[in-house]
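User: I would dearly like some help making sense of a protein record. I have put the entry right below:
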Amino acid sequence: MNINIASAKSYFMEMMDEVEKGREYFILKQGKPIARLLPVKEGALSRAEVVEKLFSFQTLK
């Protein structure tokens, strides 16, 4: 669902309830998407966890 930034600010808590149920939002500024609000997938890694795993990965020789 698309929503402009002013409405997103006004309805943030309601949007969070909907995101928790699986809905995604594109937040628009002057009609152009600037952000995406979506639920976190169960078991998804944070960016820091992904970076940590990449740096700890050892290649076989």
In short: Residues 47-56 form the longest helix (10 residues). The first strand starts at residue 2 and ends at 4. The domain at 2-56 is CATH 3.40.1620 (YefM-like fold). The CA atoms of residues 53 and 59 lie 13 Å apart.
